[in-house]
């Protein structure tokens, strides 16, 4: 990779450039910032077609300007988890047979309207011809409860194109039957999740990786998969230890070709002007934290980002 920047910041919400380590990386030229602040509100939570086209154009222009970003930007930071659907735009550009490894507290599997939604981006990725499978690792959230009533794409789960491995979740009722898969069983109207926190995580991950349909993988991480003492996000959070996530990266690199990766899950202050987005945030996200909690949380995120970025760069 020579002296090319190894880190790209998509600045949508202002949550990234102010972090001291990232600011230093930008100053020394080992990271680059793509200013997408003009699209921040339009893309947050969900996007219409026009704003999405502007995002795609901005990504294409940035890659042209840097003569091949796919090779030069193995890791992209996106900002708040409200922008996780931006991962679908990045994955769309990583042509060639691909499996997606998705670490998240939520399955992001809903059939949403608008379709370009942070809660449904997995379906966007699966719609790409070159994406053979998405594997979601780590969810604990209530999104797994009664998925048939929440618009979950259970067909993809039954077909094995979307596999879900919960970190910790009791059986969940569903009126719609699903075929058994490696991360779940269906019995008597309920999905019984295979809880990874009850297993040897390295052995379970090895099983997941060995069964992938492609050697090439994209890794996408939403830090809300981590417990609140290790990350601070706009969403309810899971229980996966950061140590497990860090240990997973070299294990993936040893078995697969990592063609790209992205991380979201920063905390960004709400700035919605669209009434439906404001309502969705109020209904679906935790109450606004105190300023003191925000200050402590941002420090926590900066520390976690430092070790995650270091772990990715150690693979190169």
From TrEMBL:
Name the source's superkingdom: Bacteria
Q: What PROSITE patterns does the database record attribute to this sequence?
A: ARGINASE_2 (PS51409)
Q: Which InterPro entries match?
A: Ureohydrolase, Ureohydrolase_dom_sf
An example of a GO molecular function for this protein is: metal ion binding
Q: Which SUPFAM superfamilies match?
A: Arginase/deacetylase
Family assignment?
Belongs to the arginase family.
Q: What is this protein called?
A: Arginase
**What organism does this protein naturally occur in?**
Aureimonas endophytica
């Amino acid at each position: 990779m020579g002296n090319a920047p190894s880190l790209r910041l998509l600045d949508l919400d202002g949550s990234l450039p102010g972090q001291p380590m990232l600011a230093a990386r930008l100053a020394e030229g080992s990271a680059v910032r793509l200013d997408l602040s003009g699209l921040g509100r339009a893309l947050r939570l969900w996007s219409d077609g026009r704003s999405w086209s502007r995002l795609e154009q901005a990504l294409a222009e940035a890659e042209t300007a840097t003569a091949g970003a796919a090779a030069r930007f193995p890791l992209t930071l996106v900002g708040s988890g409200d922008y996780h659907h931006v991962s679908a735009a990045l994955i769309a550009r990583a042509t060639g047979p691909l499996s997606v490894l998705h670490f998240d507290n939520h399955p992001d599997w809903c059939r949403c309207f608008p379709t370009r939604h942070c809660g449904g981006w997995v379906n966007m990725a699966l719609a790409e011809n070159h994406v053979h499978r998405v594997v979601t690792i780590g969810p604990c959230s209530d999104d797994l409860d009664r998925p048939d009533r929440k618009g979950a794409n259970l067909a993809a789960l039954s077909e094995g194109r979307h596999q879900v491995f919960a970190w910790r979740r009791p059986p969940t009722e569903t009126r719609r039957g699903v075929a058994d898969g490696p991360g779940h069983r269906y019995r008597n109207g309920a999905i019984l999740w295979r809880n990874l926190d009850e297993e040897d995580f390295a052995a379970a991950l090895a099983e997941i990786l060995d069964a992938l349909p492609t050697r090439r993988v994209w890794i996408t991480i939403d830090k809300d998969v981590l417990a609140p003492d290790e990350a601070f996000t706009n969403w309810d959070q899971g229980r996966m230890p950061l140590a497990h996530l860090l240990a997973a990266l070299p294990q993936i690199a040893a078995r697969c070709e990592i063609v790209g990766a992205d991380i979201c899950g920063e905390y960004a202050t709400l700035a919605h002007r669209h009434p439906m987005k404001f309502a969705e945030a109020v209904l679906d996200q935790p109450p606004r934290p105190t300023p003191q909690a925000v200050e402590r949380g941002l420090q926590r995120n900066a520390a976690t980002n430092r070790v995650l970025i270091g772990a990715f760069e150690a693979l190169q």
